[in-house]
Description:
By secondary structure, this protein is mostly helical. It contains 10 helices and no strands.
Amino acid sequence: MNFIEWIINLAQISLWITALVLIGIYILKPLVMFIPLPVLYVAAGIVFPTWAALTITFGGVALALISGYYSGKLIGEKKVNDYLIKNKKIDHFIKGKDKRFLSLCFLYRILPLPFDVFNMVCGAAKVPFWKYLIVSVLGLSFAVVLNTIAGVYITTPLSPKFLFPFSISLAFSCSVFILYRRRI
């Protein structure tokens, strides 16, 4: 049984428990980095009505951002810097955060780059928390809304209600990634 099937089965028992489990997974996500965010967005869309799925997803994303940020603060700048030395692409992307932090943070959320590591780096580097949180949520909003809505209509994968948000999300992510790759 895969993750989505497990969430659907849990939802048959209780929607409240399912919502709490999803929120808990978001909170633990920075520590369990192998869970892709789009899977969580789609899972919420499958199980809950659109308004509830979006509420749970935005709340969960905010909690994941917060837990990642404070994990980085706890781990400390030295250990995070040791990780960055090993990963040159992230290190290059993070350099200059003070000069262009808001645009960097927003762009980082749009690109398909490691979500959890960036959260920890921001915490360890003592980036201003509220700016980090607001800009991160705004940067993730496009993907959150489109993927959650795609999850609502995933049972009809050839319908325009599914294909439209899925296609827009995919095209947007690919376009931004291509532009980013050409610029650097």
